User: Fold this.
Amino acid sequence: MRERLELFKGDITTLDVSVIVNAANSSLLGGGGVDGAIHRAAGPELVWECRKLNGCPTGSAKLTGGHNLKAAHVIHTVGPIWRDGNHGEPDLLTKAYRSCFALIRQMGFGSAAFPSISTGAYRFPLEQASRIAIQEGLAALEENLVLRKLIFVCYDAATLEAYQARIEQLAPVPA
Ligand code: ADP
Assistant:
């Protein structure tokens, strides 16, 4: 699995993969952060398509086209807003990742890229969020052999460091 998992530091909208994941808000009508970047790069047709979806509950995921993106598809998922950790936040973040991987499997996508869901404006602690992301990613790679490449996009140095540390803990390269 480890060899099918990659970290990329940069902008998710530049990636040429089957599908990119958007960390959206429940309206699906656009926002800041990665959501804003994806809508800007995809063009206005993306929000027109999203309007027809009637939003998305936290932990769920919905599929659209990629429009002007290199990726032909976008999965919009909604991670939890961090309050204090006692409001089901870890379970909801796990659910968001699983909803995306279920769609990826259902659609037979060969490559996918994820941002660090909930760790920006939604303030989910990076250490715990990166552990959930890597755990769920490795589990998906194990059960879905059609998925040849899974990229976790780390937009800043702190995110990249956290993901690197989690990979070393959870999927060490054999000596
Ligand atoms: P959330 O509301 O789920 O926290 P944000 O978009 O605020 O979502 O942040 C999620 C992560 O996406 C953060 O690590 C942020 O730095 C990162 N990010 C912002 N812009 C981009 C981009 N263009 N490509 C990839 N990641 C991005």
